[in-house]
Amino acid sequence: MTSVRIMRNRDWANPVPPARREVLTATPELPDDSKPPVLFVPGFGHGAWAYAEHWLEHAAGRGFAAHAVSPRGHGNSEPAPKAELRAYAHDVVQVAAGLPRQAVLVGHGAGALVVAHALARYPARAGVLAAPVFGGWATLGLALRHNLFGTLPGAFGGKVRVGRRQLFSRDLPEPVARDYLKRIGHASRRAQWELLRSRAPEEPVGAPPVLVVGTPDDRVVPRSALDRVAARYGGAPLLFPGMGHDLMLDARWPEPLDAILDWLEKGDH
C-alpha cells in the first residue's frame, strides 16, 4: 500500500522543520505479513527507551514488527526546545509513512494526543491510546492534587517533576522505579502550554478502529477523562486496575500489551 499523508494549509505556509529522529526496532524471528507493523509513541519526557524496556521485544515475539520513535526533543532525537505538538505529530507521521506497510499507531500519555493528531494526517491501520493525556484543567487538577510542587513549574512553562506514585504501582521495585525516573526528561514549553489548552484533535483519516486502554488507579489521567476519550472514538476504555500510569514500565506491563495485540489479531486490523 502507498502511504498517504494529509497536508493542511498551515503545513504548507509554515512547514515543520526537519529533525533527526531516534527510532528503535524489534523484528520477529519469523515475519508474519498478516500482522501490521506497530509504531509506539512515548509521552512527554519519555523516549523510545520506555518501549525498548519490554514492549518492543514482546510484540516482536508475537510476530509484530515493532518500532518506537522518540519525537524531537525526546530520547536521543534532536533537541527541540521550541517544538509544538504538530512537530511531534509530524515526526510520527514521517516515521509511519516510511514503514513498508500501513502501521498501527500506539501512543501513551501525552503521546496518545500526539497519535490522535497524527491519525488526522496518516491513514493508520488502527490506533491505540494508552492512558491518554488529552490535557485540560481536570488533568492539571489531578496532577496538582498528587504532586503540587512538581506540577506547578509545568503550569508556567518549566519542567514537570513527576513522582514515583504518579507513574508506577507499589509492585514495581523501588530501585527500578528510581532508575526510570532519572531517565525522564520534559517536553518543550510550547507543547506543555498546548496540552493545557487542550485543543481537540481532528477526526482520523479513514475512520480506523481506535482502542483506549488505561487504569482506574491512574494518578495522572482522571477516570472521567479516560471515559471521555474512549467515548470520542465510540467505545469504552479497557481497564487494568492496580497499575500505574506508565503501563509499559510498570510491574504488570505484559497485561495491557497482550490485550492490545490480542485486539489487533482478533479484529483483523
Automatic annotation (TrEMBL):
The keyword Transit peptide does not apply. This is Lysophospholipase, alpha-beta hydrolase superfamily. SUPFAM superfamilies: alpha/beta-Hydrolases. Keywords: Hydrolase. Pfam families: Abhydrolase_6. The keyword Calcium does not apply. Residues 38-250 form the AB hydrolase-1 domain. One of its GO terms (molecular function) is hydrolase activity.
